[in-house]
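Would you be willing to look carefully at the protein I have copied below?

:::
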Amino acid sequence: MGMIKAGIKLFSGMGDLIFMKGVFYGVGVGPGDPELLTLKGYRVLREADVICAPKSGADREGVALSIIGEIIGQKKEVLELSFPMTRERAKLEPSWEKAAGRIIGFLREGKKVAFVTLGDPTLYSTYTYLLKKIKQAGPWAVETIPGVPSFCACAALAGIPLAEGEEKLAVVPVIEDLDTVRFVCRHFENVVFMKVAGKFAEVAAVLEELGLKGQAVFASRCGLAGSVVKRDLEEVEEGHKDYLSLIIVKKVAQGG
């Protein structure tokens, strides 16, 4: 996304000039290991006036914020924004509106505001919904800083390539439709199933049905405390099935 230069001049209804100097950044902090934060992400977080971080409940610190805790130090202004753990847009919309309103308040003060997100901010991230709201409110200066996606870090940790040569790669969130699991397994050489915790047994059953269960790798909390990588799905325990879990399937077995 191109950078919209700060300092845009707008005319109010009274004819006065308004200078909007605030900048909104979306910063991907990677999957968990603070050393996987990009140099640009590190610089932006150090320079930001306000760090905004998502969390799923009023009494829980967000994972993204915990990753950058040592980087931002104690003097940085931090705003934690609560978002409900649901896929129902009607319930999420008010939280997006409220969060965007608070961020815009800082932008109107001319502050640099960085919203941190796990992995990459353009991939299944709350940031993209906030960005739409903020853009609707005015031509604010914005910049998105990419981060390391979780499935890239998990593949590296497992020591496997995500794709080689002319192989295709599909990245699919497992929500409800298991027919999608079957479809991508039949049409792609490599598949990443994200958010598998709630559907692990069903996905494992489909992989067994297709003869691919032995070519799957399970990973959870990659780069965080309690990180787990299992090359045998039978070894995955209930406690391993964290929200931050995924399965990588390779139809072409390694070494074959």
Summary: The mean pLDDT is 86.
